[in-house]
Amino acid sequence: MILLQIIFTNVGNPHALGQKPLTFPRQVVALCQAPFLLDDPNVELVFPADAIARAKHYLSLTSGGLGAYSDAHGIPGIRKEVSEFIERRDGYPSDPEHIFLTGGASIGVMQILNCIIRGELDGILVPVPQYPLYSATISLLGGSLVPYYLEETANWGLDIVNLRQSVAQARSQGITVRAMVIINPGNPTGQCLSEANLKEVLQFCYQNNLVLLGDEVYQQNIYQDERPFISARKVLMDMGGNISKELQLVSFHTVSKGYWGECGQRGGYFEMTNIPPKTAEEIYKVTCTSHSPNVPGQIFLGLMVNPPKPGDISYERFVRESKGILESLRRRAQIVTDGFNSCRNVICNFTEGAMYSFPQIRLPPKAIEAAKNAGKVPDVFYCLKLLEATGISTVPGSGFGQKEGVFHLRTTILPAEEDMPAIMASFKKFNDDFMEQYEDYGGYLRM
Amino acid sequence: MRRFLADLSRKLTPERRKNLVTCVLQHRTCSLFSSFQSQSSVVIPIRFLNTASVDPSMASDYSGSPVTLDTINIKVLNCEYAVRGEIVTLAQKLEQELKENPGSRSFDEILYCNIGNPQSLGQQPITFFREVLALCDHPTILDRAETQGLFSADSIERAFQILDQIPGRATGAYSHSQGIKGLRDTIASGIEARDGYPADPNDIFLTDGASPAVHMMMQLLIRSEKDGILCPIPQYPLYSASITLHGGTLVPYYLDEATGWGLEISELKNQLEAAKSKGISIRALVVINPGNPTGQVLSESNQKEIVEFCKKEKLVLLADEVYQENIYVPDKQFHSFKKVSRTMGYGEKDISLVSFQSVSKGYHGECGKRGGYMEVTGFSPDIREQIYKVASVNLCSNISGQILASLVMSPPKVGDESYESYFAEKDAILSSLAKRAKTLEAALNSLEGVTCNRAEGAMYLFPRIELPKKAIEAAKSANKAPDAFYAARLLDATGIVVVPGSGFRQVPGTWHFRCTILPQEDRIPAIVTRLTEFHKGFMDEFRD
Hints:
The structure holds 2 protein chains of 2 kinds.
Chain A: E1 7-8, H1 23-33, H2 43-46, H3 49-61, H4 76-90, E2 99-102, H5 105-116, E3 122-128, H6 133-140, E4 144-149, H7 160-172, E5 176-183, H8 195-207, E6 211-215, H9 232-239, H10 241-246, E7 249-254, E8 268-273, H11 277-288, H12 295-305, H13 315-341, E9 346-347, E10 356-357, E11 360-361, H14 365-373, H15 378-390, E12 392-393, E13 395-396, E14 409-412, H16 420-438
Parallel strand pairs in A: 1-12, 3-4, 3-5, 5-6, 6-7
Antiparallel strand pairs in A: 2-8, 7-8, 9-11, 10-14, 13-14
Helix pairs in contact in A: 1-3, 1-12, 4-12, 5-6, 8-9, 13-16, 14-15
Chain B: H1 74-78, H2 86-100, E1 111-112, H3 127-137, H4 147-150, H5 153-164, H6 181-195, E2 204-207, H7 210-221, E3 227-233, H8 238-245, E4 249-254, H9 265-277, E5 281-288, H10 300-313, E6 316-320, H11 337-343, E7 353-358, E8 372-377, H12 381-393, H13 399-408, H14 419-445, E9 450-451, E10 460-461, E11 464-465, H15 469-477, H16 482-494, E12 496-497, E13 499-500, E14 513-516, H17 524-542
Parallel strand pairs in B: 1-12, 3-4, 3-5, 5-6, 6-7
Antiparallel strand pairs in B: 2-8, 7-8, 9-11, 10-14, 13-14
Helix pairs in contact in B: 2-16, 3-5, 3-13, 6-13, 7-8, 15-16, 16-17
């Protein structure tokens, strides 16, 4: 019996697959945890001066160190750092009062949806395929998910025609469509929206009286140069006029992704644009009942938006570590895409951004039959077989939504680069064996 | 929270909402006019969009926008949480004023006695815990010789131990949605050491503080407004807020102030029956022990009665035990409800029990870390699966908080290098808390018309004030609840921030406020003096 190593490519969890934490933030937060170290003359033997200075800076922003509840919407000094980051990124001023720090982006999404969804007649437009936080939360809150399909053949593009159809259909069922979610870069699909596309989306939301929810947690994970990341807010502000003053937008970001990958810290924020102050107050009120996001997570966020600068002692190392991670992710995106496309029954769009690959697996009728007999959805059946044979743990496409009769799986591009060729080879072998087992002479069928 | 004016006589028409007034009494569940009416619409208030208060830089009247007060989830509007309510907003304004005009008041600082946030008032963290956390945050230094000069040997050892329980030593990775298994093992052992009965690590769900765990249980238990949760009055308003947010009904049971906030089973029975007769299905009983805001510690016999009651009525017992390490009187002891149930011979099949614990209280006071857990026993495996599923939507709680929870449940032992200093720190904090509790209690009891039960545990005093008629009338004219009026005046005159009793609910017609015992010892005399002076002045002004 061969003992398999399980390869967890099912969650966007970089550190679990060997990605090392960036050094500087860990130094800073460790010092904040143990401020008595700052008085120890030996501290400089172990921590660089700029980490020491930064720890002192963040401690001074707190109301009693890491152990005190902060403001429910986050430490004011860190919200200010976030607003400055947004301004540098987009070229438009950002108000710290419109920024709420949260225990990860997911909490922020749940808080905003909780505010918007009044009952089952409230619909939220969600891309299909989508990250199932949205479907789960809408379900828990008793709302309705209104799907809009991304176009796989057009690189998972967003077609306004599809959007209009989805909205019209929902309205005909008596649903009030309240908000639209975009995930940019996409999860699981990885596509990066173009500026033109974003403009269309913003116009669409404005015309249809929707609040736009921009999940931008993968904004640092871009693996092609044709479509760099551009925030929904920047596009909105560029458009100017009434729309820029009236279109309601909530943008989400996190320390869990990018090249930081600090999932376990639970740090994130949302920024509100054109949300009435009194509504923001109500959201604030609800966050008070869970006190505040964890303070170390807030500091990670501050460090992410305000990293070491040229001239800082830790700058060189920080840049080296960050670049190393990003460049490797870009290479891995290519390795994985190519690896999948080398299988004749697999079509895989290139991972333009984020951390995932979402190949389409064309399954022959016999396989679909076998799945049925096993009481499983075809892609679940395939993924289970894949796991058993290779130890590779993936998520079946049905977990994210897909068109009827089309099957996918989601894997991450996170395993170590040196392990990638072997993993892709292992997949290919499994897939080819699977196809041999289940293929009809008449070729495979895509229903 | 926000104050709204209530005008009960006018009804609202659904069309135009410009310049209409919204009024919600702080402690009443009101329905807002919308196409989704909430349950008991006794009051149909009028609404008012105060466009004057809109930030001028957002030049829009929002009336056509999808997300406005008119169109958000009514449960959000109805939910109240007084601990960070209106009085705190006033205090922050005052603080700003003091910064801009120092010397403009007779006091030079705001004293936040509204929230159980010890480290914001000078309490120091436990050194050993912070050493371990720092090492776990930056494990690369563990191999360096210099590190041994900076950290105690046993903190280094514990860090190694903990890191070995984390796959890949990756403290930045999402963990299992219930929390890291090894840490849950440690916590289970800690529970067993405390209670003398075994605990299963699979029953433990590590959460970002106890509050999210409470929210999870309310979400699970409440199906509609016909589901009721029995809550003590006075209660910590997380419960009322959470029940409202999840669309349920709070069924109050009154603690008896005259008998040290005693919990009478007859009261529980009466409230249960009354609710049932109104068609409410009671799902759970919340017990906060030690109590918040009331501070009482339940006797073991009382706890046994409660367990029997829950078993008989088939209620889930939600045991908020976050103050289990805050006991200030020699005649009382903490007994977990799990221990009490097991002592009675009741096991998994007999009683559904959820115990909440937190790193925020006790002697460690690590509020900002957001660490805690719930121990879930007496539920079927399929329900456990559902709880796990809900926990997994948010992936996991923060890892550092998880580590801290395990440290709290297994601190240094006799013989460990850090034991002496750990114990000294712990003892100093707890004895100081006991001292402050006594001093403030005595001071409050010396005030005219004020009676204050002793703080047997937790972190609060909840004195009752007999307000003269004139004061109650003045409050009415100011559109405030009388205790909120008193608290606002207190803040204005002294800079001391307390939470009006109406934020916790109380027997109608009685008035209280909640004050923490957390300001450092050297501040206490000033607090006592200012409070006494203020109260005398207030009574002089309003005495009948």
